[in-house]
Structures are given as structure tokens and as C-alpha cells.
Amino acid sequence: MTTKKGITSIKPTFFFGNKHMQKFSEPKKRNLTKVNISQMKSVNKFCNLLLHTIIRKQYRPSKKTDTKPNFLSAAEKLHYVEMFLENKIEKNNILMDICKKELINT
Q: Would 95 be classed as within a structural domain?
């Protein structure tokens, strides 16, 4: 993995480099790659629909005062989660492109 402009990117690699996996038939490799793509799409959908809607909701502080305050404010926590989601989505998009190229090659 390399860092480019603060975003984690993945160099294209041969997914079936393992000796055991090299013995897989072409249909099995294609099936595994398709499953990989569908799982990454579902993770992206989860990040976009559910977590981004939760993050964008306004913060309501509790009525009770915390005896043990957190070190991060609510805005800092939300910013951290949002950055994590953006990186995860970008990483999945890169992996999906690599998987699609692998599907074309097999």
C-alpha cells in the first residue's frame, strides 16, 4: 500500500499468487472475484447510506453531565469517523477496479 495525497491506494497485484489458489480453475477464480466485488459494493453502500446519514445528524448533548468526559468533542469524533469512511470507500473503489481488470484477464 502506498500513500498518495493522503489517500491510501493499493498497487495492482495478482490476487491468486498463493500456490494453493493457483490451482483453482478459471470459473472458481472468476466467482471469487465477483463475490469480492459484490462485498466491496455492499460495504460502500453501507458507508454511504447508513453511516453518512448518522454522521450528518446534528449532535444533541445529553441532559446529564458526564462524570468522565471524553477527550474528543463530538465534532472531532464525527470528523474522525467521516475521514475513515471516505478512505474506506476510496480503497474499495480501487480494489473493485483491480478486481474488474482481473475478471477481464481470466
A: yes
Output the pLDDT for position 83.
Answer: 78
Is residue 67 within 8 A of residue 22, CB to CB? The reply is no
User: 74-94 pLDDT, tens per residue?
Assistant: 677 677 777 777 788 888 888
Number of domains in the chain: 1
Parent domain of 52: 25-57+73-106
Q: Where are the alpha helices (DSSP H) in the chain?
A: 19-22, 26-45, 52-56, 74-105
* Cβ within 8 Å of residue 80, ≥6 positions away: 72
- pTM here? 0.50
